[in-house]
Every structure is written in C-alpha cells, then in structure tokens.
Amino acid sequence: MxxxxxxxxxxxxxADLNQAPIDVAAVLDHLVCEADAAAATSIxxxxxxxxxxxxxxxxxxxxxxxxxxxxxxxxxGAHTRALERAVIAWVxxxxxxxxxxxxxxxxxxxxxxxxxxxxxxxxxHPTARIYYSTAAHYSIPKAVEILGARAVVIDSRPDGxxxxxxxxxxxxxxxxxxxxxxxxxxxxxxxxxxxxxxxxAVLNEHGVTGHLHIDAALSGIPLALDGRLRFDDAAGIGSxxxxxxxxxxxxxxxxxxxxxxxxxxxxxxxxxTDTVDTTITxxxxxxxxxxxxxxxxxxxxxxxxxxxxxARTLAAYTVYQxxxxxxxxxxxxxxxxxxxPTPPEPVRKKWLLATDGDTSHIICMPGITRGQIxxxxxxxxxxxxxxxxxxxxxxxxxxxxxxTDDHR
Length: 408
Ligand SMILES: Cc1ncc(COP(=O)(O)O)c(C=O)c1O
Hints:
Aspartate Aminotransferase, domain 2, binds pyridoxal-5'-phosphate, 36% helix, globular, 408 residues, alpha/beta
C-alpha cells in the first residue's frame, strides 16, 4: 500500500507514547515516506536493494520465529532451524569448508559474528594477543574489549590492505604468545582484502600458533562465489563472519558466522529451553534465517554470481564517469566500493556518502542503477575538483617508527 499521509506533527512528537490518541498509521507512513525519499540517493552504505522478499514477509511476518539455542537442536514451537541449517550449509559449501569440521549459526550481523568467532578463539588461546589492522571494522576492537583481551593494532596501507611488514615486526616482539589475527575481506572504507596466505607466512616464519579469523562482512559471499575466498584445509582459517543484510540483501540486520567445529567449545545444556547454549544471544531471529534462505533459494549460485558481476561492472562504470568528470576515483578490481575524495557537504549529505575525513566512498550494491550514478556524477561535476587523490589517514610514510606503547 502506498503511504499517502504524513503527520502534521514532527515524527518525534507524533510517535510520543504519552500522547493520546496516537495516529499509528500516520507514524508508520511517515517512516516509509522518509525511507523511500532517502532510497533514491542512498549509495554510501552496503545493503543490496534488488531482492524481493515480500513473499517471506507476507507469509511469515506475522508471528515470532525463534531459533533459540544451537541450530542443530531439534527445537520446538515456531522456528526455522531447518532453513538456518540449509543457509549455513550453503555458505560453508561455497567457501569449500570441510564437511567434517564445520559449525555455524545465523547471527544478528557481522558484529556478532566477529564476537562469536573471537570468543571461541580466545577461549582456546586465553593468552593470545589479537592483531587487527587500522582498517578493521570498529566491531573488532569492541570485541577485544568485551573479551578483556590484549590488542595489537597493525598499520594498513593507503589502499586499506594490512601492512604485512608491520605485522611481522609486531609478531616478532610477542612471539612467546599465541596470535589471533583478524584479516578483513572487504574493509569498510575501501573494500581491501587482506591476504591470509601472507599472514600465515608471517606466523610460520616466527613459529607462532593461534587462530586466523576473517571478517568478511561485505565481500565474503561474492569472493567465495568467485573461488577467491576459500575456507578449506589449505587456507588455515579458523572462522569467518559475514553480514546477511549486505550482499544477500536481507531486510533485517543479520549475518552468518562459521567456525571450525574443532576449535569451538561445547555449550552447556539449558534445561528449561531444552537447547544447548552455543550462541552469543539466546533467542535468535528465525525470520532472518527464512529471509536468507529465500534469497539463496530464489537465485542460487549462478544468480548471485551474476548479481556480483553486475555490481562490479557498475562500480567500474562509476570510476570511469567520476574520473572523466575530474574526480580521481579508484576501486580494487574485485570491489563494489568506489573511493573518492570527500565532496563538498551538500553533495555528501544528499547522497548519504560514508566519509572518513578526506576520503569518502560509494558502494555499487546490487540494485543501485546507472541512473543514480549518472545523477551523482552530474551533482559532483558542478563542484570544484579536488587537488589530492584520496588516501587513508595513516600512510606508510607517517607511520611511527617504533610502537613503544606495549610489547605485551
Ligand atoms: C568489515 C566490516 N566488518 C563488520 C561490519 C559490521 O557488520 P554489521 O553491521 O552486520 O554488524 C561491517 C559493517 O559495515 C564491516 O564493514
């Protein structure tokens, strides 16, 4: 139904639960109108907008689907564990994860996946230092803090990839402790992919054991479909987290975490729910599992490969058009993300660009159109072109020579 009304009051006033009567329909319509208006110029954040999920929402949206406990539990009442297990199996399969050493569940998002994986790794290696780069997502330092672990921050290169020489130097200083290393497959700002084979080489060279976690919130599924991200025995990866509302376009925040069965701890059985407590949250959203299952069931591997390929083609087109308009944009070859110098505020605000200082990005997620890109380029072309090409804040040249803060 198309919303036709907006409340005369501001949304905050109209939604105030202390006033009576409340015009519920007007408040909900107002939210939809605002979201619809923003959608046309929303090209800065990584949610795919091309998948139609109305069938799932119409059929399942009216009740609670709770996958409380471990996905392998039989469950009782209304739950979607069978679909959750199918999603976990599909994601593990496209990553070539060994069938005899896999476990996972559907999370509330990439953040919970990172926490769950780092929790498992830290339980196994309680004295480990957790290494992550300056380009890692903020959920990583947050997880480290929640776990009470020790962090070692590794420099990243101007293009967002980890500085492996700096990693080696920091590992060398702490070689007596195990290492939990977080590599990112698709950094938030530039969609850089850390090379886990180089990280392994560093660990092996220094005789350090531990756990390698891949934060693949955005790029995990598309890279796996290309065969560029593999979780097989040779890869030496312990865990991977992806977001479900990014490439797979679920209309509610969710994600998938995969952990090697052999590295995680068994949970306790909870008598009153008759489930095993292996997940970060207790109650878990069964609707999210159904939405992810539907996205996969209706498109399959080939459909999702095609979506990724179209999105990359649009990203390449965007770089070309921006460069032609005098804006020095760039992207990694596999990326949907286009990095550019931060445009003047009116353009940045209108197009909801994600910005970090002098660098911004747009993300050509499936569903973004050439028309939107052309309109954005037309807007930006009316502004003065920047003098500098974008560079992440911490360049190799500006790196401190020695981190004296800790060798712990
Ligand atoms: C690299 C990376 N990791 C983790 C996350 C967090 O994912 P979520 O928002 O699903 O919790 C993001 C979100 O943008 C991200 O870019």
